Amino acid sequence: MKTSETTAFYPGSFDPFTLGHESILLRALQIFDKVILAIGVNDSKHYYFTLEQRIDMLQDLYTDNPCVEVVTYSDLTVLAAQRHKATAILRGIRSATDFEYEKNLADINRSLTHIDTVFFFSEPQYSHISSSMVRELLRYNYPVESFIPQNLKLPKGI
Questions:
Q1: Among the options 45, 46, 114, 156, which is catalytic?
Q2: 134-144 pLDDT per residue, tens
């Protein structure tokens, strides 16, 4: 019998958050009591949107959903998940290549903290969508509405 809250720690750059991310999140909310959208900060990466813009976009998108929390972290994902008392790390898989990489991370994370990783395979209609693809379209001023959640408000002036 389940007696405590289950929390999934869903890490990513979310630069920007896509329909694929949203699909994973909504499906996870059917299993977990809470999902933490964890925006990873890596000083060696170059982002299209600032950290503040990504936080604002996600908080605005899920402001009415008490089961979704937005946080940031800059250390090891598994340590951040542990700090936030996550019961699992949530990852999306689009391809066999993704799976190989993610499986290795999951094995290491489990050995460090005993936190398991739960994989959700991308729904076929979203498997071609990636944040990097959306960023490329944005760079060329191409409309991206068909690749991001309907209510995601991109910052003005991009």
A1: 45
A2: 999 999 999 99
